[in-house]
Amino acid sequence: QLGYQAESGPWRNFYLTGAQELRNGVVKGPTPNTASPDTVRAMTPEMFFDFLAVHINGEKAGNARAVFNIDLGSDGGKYKLELENGVLNHTANAEAKDADATITLNRDTLNKIILKEETLKQAQDKGEVNVTGNAAKLDEMLGYMDKFEFWFNIVTP
């Protein structure tokens, strides 16, 4: 009833979506591909690192601490990634002296990894990615990544 009484369009949508979920459950429709090749190519490195940060499971990574230097070559720049207290932060044009690992790759290789055209391990085997330092720390950080379901519950747990 709240959905039919609400005058605001967004509130009406919230209420009616919740009611539909309570009656029918979450309807799993076709999942759109939000990471199309054009979208990935248009992402700045900062956007990519924000994308990574969103996927960190803060609870699992709560006690982890890692620092990485990322070198994307002359056209991509250098970045410092810091994982601490379950949060991944990046700093452009910075380099940590005490980094656990330094990852060197070009933007095309990064795009292939994001698009899942090849894995980090495959790129390393081809010589497209160079990891110096503690590669286990990089694997540890990647282990803290969550994969989200596109269709999720709005009202029910």
From TrEMBL:
GO process annotations (BP): dodecyl sulfate metabolic process
Alkyl sulfatase dimerisation domain span: 1-25
Single annotated GO MF: protein dimerization activity
Keyword Zinc: yes
Keywords, comma-separated and alphabetical: Hydrolase, Metal-binding, Zinc
All copies of domain Alkyl sulfatase C-terminal, residue ranges: 33-157
InterPro entries: Alkyl/aryl-sulf_dimr_sf, Alkyl_sulf_C, Alkyl_sulf_dimr, Bact_Alkyl/Aryl-Sulfatase, RibonucZ/Hydroxyglut_hydro, SCP2_sterol-bd_dom_sf
Source domain of life: Bacteria
Keyword Zinc-finger part of the UniProt annotation: no
Pfam families the UniProt entry points to: Alkyl_sulf_C (PF14864), Alkyl_sulf_dimr (PF14863)
Stated name of the protein: MBL fold metallo-hydrolase
Organism annotation: Salmonella enterica subsp. enterica serovar Weltevreden
Phylogenetic classification of the source organism: Bacteria, Pseudomonadati, Pseudomonadota, Gammaproteobacteria, Enterobacterales
